[in-house]
Prior knowledge:
By secondary structure, this protein is mostly helical. Helices cover 48% and strands 0% of the residues.
Amino acid sequence: MKRDKKRVEGETWSEERLAEYLGFKTYDGTDPDFHCLYRAYTRMNEETFARFVQLFREQGRNVQATNLEGQTLAEIVAKHAQSEDYLAALSA
Length: 92
């Protein structure tokens, strides 16, 4: 299947746009905190993700939230190549 959108590099994320990622809802019973973190991880570069995680924590959200298989985002990310900066943001 061909992607219908190209990945945008070097995009600037405003604080308002980052805050939008705090409101994503789930439809399959996944913990909303995990869902928000996962969506941010799959769409943001390392620097933007670190800013998002800081905002996420300031809102009292759970960085240790799990998916339906009981995995945290850090456990998933740790299996990916070049994930050091993302893991650092999650464990800071």
